[in-house]
């Protein structure tokens, strides 16, 4: 076999298909595919010789059958393309081609023609004529190609196609191979650009999410911290922390209190002497608080106040903060001052003598209480009048619930006491209801917030009437007032 023939065979890739061509196979110019005339069945009668020009009948018949064969193949290709099937269909095409060759005993077009025609017909039947023209143009070369194919067995190539034709043939072969090769390929994955916000799908999904994230971040950064978050951010000083730990302030387990040497059988166990061998409660260290607590006056209006002949210490604060309970805890005389879990229990200013030289005053609470608004307002006015005008009032213990901290009404009273230059001291109550760290935080918070107050007496006292924590310390502070107070 000559070199050129070999080259043509390379172009055809499947020389076997071309090999089956009969000797008298001629490709025609201007022939129309039979399906344009409504015949897609491959009937012999379908090929109407009269409509083909420049060919004799015999040839026409052969051409028709060829065309029919080509169309048959085209149809197969169409189906192949529609089903998007791969090499399987290509095999079918080849087998059909072979079938046609075997069955008819006639020439079948070479693979390149078949695929070319298939490609053309699959999109536009008009392309068939163009393809036929191409076929005609390449007539001679294809003749030789076919002849080459035949020459595989017997003959050698007579003349070679021009280089231009070879290129064209190569191109067509490429296109054909592309058509054939593209089918088995998997669908191309569409890669979405995450930064392309013009993409609707991105807008619906990732892009919006990112926007939301950014907005959320901005809001988080710019939004003011919640009160709770601010409170959690407080770093108590080491001195406050150690005070809290030393006095077992805050919520503690019974075992912890027992290990510290306190008798948990007693009420307010921490208000005792640790590791005492005495099974009973030790005596109160401050003499003044050993006195009997005696109720001696109650006032709902200022005119009912008793004569101010002894120093007084008053206990003010919101309703239910633990004022009455603290009086009992300080004197260890439970039941003398009535307490209740119902806010607003104390409805008048109650005066209690502790011995002959000292008086403790239980004030009605302000803020939320189970009472009518006008009644509560009357209590509040009474309390304000008492703390701002009372002669003999040496100190106001302003009780704040450790859990809730200071409220606007507390600040109102502070402002009033500041104006009236009444000495006041903050007492944090119910410390047993929160964690030790929160006791320290609250103390720190209040100390810092009231730093500039002139009438405020430091330090902030931390107590629990229930556990007895901090009661002894408060007693020490108050007994000094009672001892040195003069009218
Ligand atoms: N856990 C705990 N509960 C307490 C403490 N002190 C008081 N209580 C409870 O709090 C509730 C209210 O106590 P009170 O002493 O009546 O409070 P108050 O401030 O006098 O209330 P008003 O008279 O209504 O203004 C009662 O149920 C007490 O048992 C404490 O230190 N710890
Ligand atoms: Mg009370």
Automatic annotation (TrEMBL):
Residues 53-65, 72-81, 131-142 have a biased composition (Basic and acidic residues). It holds the Pfam family MMR_HSR1. Keywords: GTP-binding, Magnesium, Metal-binding, Nucleotide-binding. Gene3D superfamilies: P-loop containing nucleotide triphosphate hydrolases. Coiled coil: none annotated. Residues 113-130 have a biased composition (Polar residues). InterPro entries: G_ENGB_dom, GTP-bd, GTP-bd_ribosome_bio_YsxC, P-loop_NTPase. Residues 1-161 are annotated as: Disordered. Belongs to the TRAFAC class TrmE-Era-EngA-EngB-Septin-like GTPase superfamily. EngB GTPase family. This is EngB-type G domain-containing protein. It comes from Hibiscus trionum. The lineage of its organism: Eukaryota, Viridiplantae, Streptophyta, Embryophyta, Tracheophyta.
């Amino acid at each position: 076999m000559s070199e050129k023939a070999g080259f043509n065979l390379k172009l055809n890739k499947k020389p076997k298909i071309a090999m089956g061509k009969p000797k008298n196979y001629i490709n025609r110019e201007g022939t129309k595919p039979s399906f344009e005339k409504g015949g897609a069945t491959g009937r012999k009668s379908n090929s109407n010789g009269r409509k083909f020009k420049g060919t004799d009948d015999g040839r026409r018949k052969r051409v028709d059958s060829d065309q029919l064969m080509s169309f048959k193949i085209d149809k197969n290709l169409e189906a192949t393309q529609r089903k998007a099937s791969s090499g399987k269909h290509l095999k079918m095409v080849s087998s059909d081609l072979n079938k046609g060759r075997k069955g008819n005993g006639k020439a079948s077009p070479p693979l390149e023609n078949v695929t070319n025609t298939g490609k053309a017909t699959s999109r536009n039947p008009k392309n068939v004529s163009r393809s036929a023209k191409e076929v005609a143009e390449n007539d001679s070369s294809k003749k030789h190609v076919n002849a080459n194919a035949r020459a595989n067995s017997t003959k050698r190539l007579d003349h070679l196609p021009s280089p231009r034709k070879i290129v064209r043939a190569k191109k067509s072969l490429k296109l054909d191979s592309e058509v054939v090769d593209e089918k088995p390929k998997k669908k191309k994955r569409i890669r979405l650009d995450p930064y392309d916000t013009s993409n609707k799908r991105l807008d619906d999904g990732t892009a919006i999410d990112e926007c939301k994230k950014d907005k959320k971040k901005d809001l988080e950064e710019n939004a003011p911290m919640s009160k709770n978050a601010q409170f959690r951010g407080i770093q108590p000083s080491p001195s406050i922390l150690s005070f809290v730990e030393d006095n077992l302030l805050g919520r503690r387990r019974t075992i912890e209190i027992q290990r510290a040497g306190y008798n948990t059988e007693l009420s307010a166990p921490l208000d005792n002497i640790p590791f005492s061998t005495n099974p009973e409660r030790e005596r109160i260290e401050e003499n003044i608080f050993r006195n009997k607590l005696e109720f001696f006056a109650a006032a709902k209006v200022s005119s009912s106040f008793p004569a101010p002949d002894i120093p007084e210490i008053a206990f003010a604060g919101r309703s239910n903060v633990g004022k009455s309970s603290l009086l009992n805890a300080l004197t260890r005389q439970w039941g003398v001052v009535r307490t209740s879990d119902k806010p607003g229990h104390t409805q008048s200013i109650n005066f209690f003598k502790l011995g002959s030289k000292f008086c403790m005053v239980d004030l009605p609470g302000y803020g939320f209480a189970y009472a009518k608004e006008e009644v509560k307002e009357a209590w509040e006015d009474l309390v304000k009048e008492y703390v701002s005008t009372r002669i003999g009032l040496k100190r106001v213990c302003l009780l704040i619930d450790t859990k809730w901290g200071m409220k606007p009404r507390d600040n109102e009273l502070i402002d009033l006491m500041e104006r009236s230059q009444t000495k006041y001291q903050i007492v944090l109550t119910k410390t047993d209801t929160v964690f030790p760290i929160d006791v320290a935080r609250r103390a720190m918070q209040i100390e810092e917030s009231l730093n500039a107050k002139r009438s405020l007496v430091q330090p902030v006292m931390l107590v629990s009437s229930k556990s007895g924590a901090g009661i002894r310390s408060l007693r020490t502070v108050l007994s000094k007032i009672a001892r040195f107070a003069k009218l």
